[in-house]
TrEMBL record:
Highest taxon of source: Bacteria
Protein's name in the database: DUF2149 domain-containing protein
TM spans (from-to): 15-38
Source organism: Pelomonas lactea
High-level lineage: Bacteria, Pseudomonadati, Pseudomonadota, Betaproteobacteria, Burkholderiales
Keywords: Membrane, Transmembrane, Transmembrane helix
Length: 111
C-alpha cells in the first residue's frame, strides 16, 4: 500500500509556531512604541493651559505655547484694577447669554 505524503508532513515542530508568534508580538511592540513616540511629539507642539489648585488662594496657572512655559501664581487676594461696571450679563435657560449695558456706562446711550 502506498503512503500518502500529503498528510504526513515532516515539519510539525510546535516550536516553529511559537517563533512565529514571537515575531508577530515584536512587530506589534515596535508599532505601539512608534505610536507613543509620535503622540508625545504632537503633544509637545500643542498649546496647553493647566490650572493647579483651582479656587485656592495659592492657585497656579501654567500656559505652554510654542514650546515655552509661563507660570502665573496667585497672591491670595482678589484681582484689583481700574475700571467701571459696564453692564450685566444674563444666561437664559437655552444657554444664550444676553448683555444689557447700564445707562451710565461709557458707550451706552440713554433711552
Amino acid at each position: 500500500m502506498k503512503h500518502l505524503t500529503i498528510l504526513a508532513e515532516e515539519d510539525d515542530d510546535p516550536m516553529l509556531s511559537a517563533v512565529n508568534l514571537v515575531d508577530v508580538f515584536l512587530v506589534l511592540v515596535v508599532a505601539l512604541l512608534t505610536a507613543v513616540a509620535l503622540q508625545q511629539q504632537a503633544a509637545a507642539d500643542e498649546n496647553v493651559t493647566i490650572i493647579k489648585r483651582p479656587g485656592e488662594p495659592d492657585m497656579e496657572v501654567i500656559v505652554r505655547e510654542k514650546g515655552q512655559e509661563i507660570r502665573y501664581k496667585g497672591n491670595g487676594g482678589s484681582s484689583e484694577g481700574q475700571g467701571v461696571r459696564a453692564g450685566v450679563a444674563y444666561k437664559l435657560k437655552d444657554g444664550n447669554i444676553i448683555y444689557v449695558p447700564e445707562a451710565g456706562a461709557s458707550g451706552a446711550g440713554k433711552p
